[in-house]
Write a structure and sequence with these properties.
Layout: E1 3-7, H1 12-24, E2 28-32, H2 43-48, E3 56-59, E4 62-65, H3 67-78, H4 88-119, H5 125-141, H6 155-169, H7 178-190, H8 194-216
Parallel strand pairs: 1-2
Antiparallel strand pairs: 1-3, 3-4
Helix pairs in contact: 1-3, 1-6, 1-8, 4-5, 4-6, 4-8, 5-7, 6-8
Length: 218
């Protein structure tokens, strides 16, 4: 029985789950969830996830949310040790990159960009500088590395590329960061089924941003 994934294609956390499933060759029963229409607030959805967030999965009656928890669950269930290595030091570095993405990179992007899109706020130069600092941190992490943690693609790369591709799609170029730019191109070329799992969602994200900007500029 395929796992149900409640998701929004433009969402970076949802695209992380799609990337992990693609890397593991795990079929998902996609359940598009329209947040704007309040589909995540229906009684049926709240029974599945009282926090009413996406992504959420349901696997034979077992429900789980938060993208990294879902990703680790899929890896643990379907044998993706290459994505989340057992070696303590390697796994610690994967976890560090995941925590950096969750606690620093994505929040700094969200704090800078979403108030402009959703609320018509002016560009916050101080917030942009904080985001650029985070991108510089990531560029430094990637110095001398093929992937985010050593020579092989891991869960860290899939999480980071979901965020970095979102940042890039918002119009903030990663070209000034040589290591990051090289890595971004590599992951786009080598992550399994990248275009289907992430590229299509990025195009939907761009369309959503364009629509919202048009409304705030009226």
């Amino acid at each position: 029985m395929a796992i149900d994934l409640y998701y929004t294609p433009g969402s970076a956390p949802c695209r992380l789950v799609l990337l992990v499933a693609a890397a593991l060759n795990v079929p998902l029963q996609l359940q598009p969830t329209d947040l704007g229409a309040g589909e995540h607030l229906t009684p049926d959805f709240l029974k599945i996830n009282p926090q009413h967030t996406v992504p959420t999965i349901v696997d034979d009656g077992f429900s789980l949310w938060e993208s990294r928890a879902i990703s680790r669950y899929l890896i643990n269930k379907y044998g993706g040790e290459n994505l989340y290595p057992q070696d303590p030091r390697t796994r610690a570095l994967v976890d560090q990159r995941l925590d950096f993405d969750l606690g620093t990179l994505y929040p700094r992007f969200a704090q800078y960009f979403y108030p402009q899109v959703f609320g018509g706020a002016p560009v916050g130069e101080d917030l942009l500088q904080k985001l650029e600092e985070a991108l510089q941190f990531l560029d430094t992490f990637l110095e001398g590395q093929t992937y985010a943690v050593g020579p092989d693609l891991t869960l860290a790369d899939l999480a980071l590329v979901a965020t970095v591709s979102t940042i890039d799609a918002s119009g903030i170029s990663v070209k000034p960061y040589a290591n990051l730019d090289r890595w971004f191109d590599l992951v786009k070329r080598t992550a399994p089924n990248y275009e289907e799992a992430n590229g299509k969602g990025i195009e939907m994200f761009k369309a959503m941003v364009a629509q919202l900007k048009a409304k705030t500029e009226l």
